[in-house]
Amino acid sequence: MSGLVVTGGLIVGGYLLGTVPTALVVGRRLGHDPTAEGSGNPGASNVYRLAGRRAGLVVALVDLAKGAVPAAVASLVVGRPGADWVWLAAVAGHVWPVTRRFRGGKGVATAGGGGLVLAPVAGVVCLALFAAAVATTRIAAVGSLAMAVAYPLLLATLGRPGDEVAVAVVVAAVLVIRHRSNLARLVRGEERRLGGRGPR
Fold first, then answer.
1. Cβ neighbours around 10 below 10 Å, total
2. Domain segments of the chain as ranges
3. Measured between alpha carbons, how far is 91 from 70 in angstroms, rounded to an integer?
4. Cβ pair 156, 122 in contact under 8 A
5. Tell me: the pLDDT tens digits for 109-150?
6. Count of other CB atoms within 10 angstroms of residue 200
7. What is the pLDDT of residues 162-195, one digit of tens each?
8. Which of 1, 138, 147, 190 is 20 to 30 A from residue 81's alpha carbon, by CA?
9. Which residue in 130, 138, 142, 122 sits closest to 198, CA to CA?
10. 16-70 pLDDT, tens per residue?
11. Mutual orientation of helices 140-157 and 120-137 as an angle, nearest 10°?
12. Other CB atoms within 10 Å distance of the CB of residue 188
């Protein structure tokens, strides 16, 4: 019972850490509101477009930590599969923050941070895939979607336990659902590009 209580506490803590509005804090300090400007998404790529590369990088790194830190702590305290559920909770906190009427970001960096901690090999491969996709297309959503789909497939290929793969599939599904509008714009050839080039 005590183990369940500790795991439950870590899940709640992971969710609350996920709700930290990094993009809003950084954007507003620089005179921008990422929920009302650009794509309207409070995430690193929108902050990058609105406030520059350094601001976007800060948001990305902090959001990565929002997934990595709770996953690492849970791995040390309760091990697996509890740490996977804490990771999912952190992603849910970022995507559906109770502090902002459940209107959050798309969860890519937070998911990536936890994924790196829980399965470093798969995480590094996915980061490389993300970087290659973005470098080729200049579209952040393409890299995000490629990474989301690839991660659970890599876990399965690496022979990770079924419960870990299942949680990764749920996280991937959340990311894909949150990118519905991006997918529609990609089909129409209207998706925003980084660096100010291409369709807006």
1. 22
2. 2-196
3. 11
4. no
5. 999 999 999 999 999 999 999 999 999 998 989 999 999 999
6. 12
7. 999 999 999 999 999 999 999 999 999 888 787 6
8. 147
9. 138
10. 999 999 999 999 999 999 999 988 889 998 999 899 999 999 999 999 999 999 9
11. 150
12. 9
Burial class (CB in 10 A: 0-12, 13-18, 19+), 6: middle
* pTM summary value: 0.91
Token pair 């209107």: residue: 103
Cα separation, 83 vs 65, whole angstroms? 15
Q: Which residue has the tokens 């490629």?
A: 146
Retrieve residue 186's tokens. 């990609």
Phi and psi at 78, nearest 5°, equal -120, -10
- Which structure tokens are listed for 19? 């709700």
In angstroms, the first-to-last Cα distance of the chain is 53
* CA distance linking residue 39 with residue 35, whole number of Å: 8
User: 112 and 147 in contact (C-beta within 8 Å)?
Assistant: yes
Total residue count of the chain as it appears in this document: 200
Residue type, 151: Y
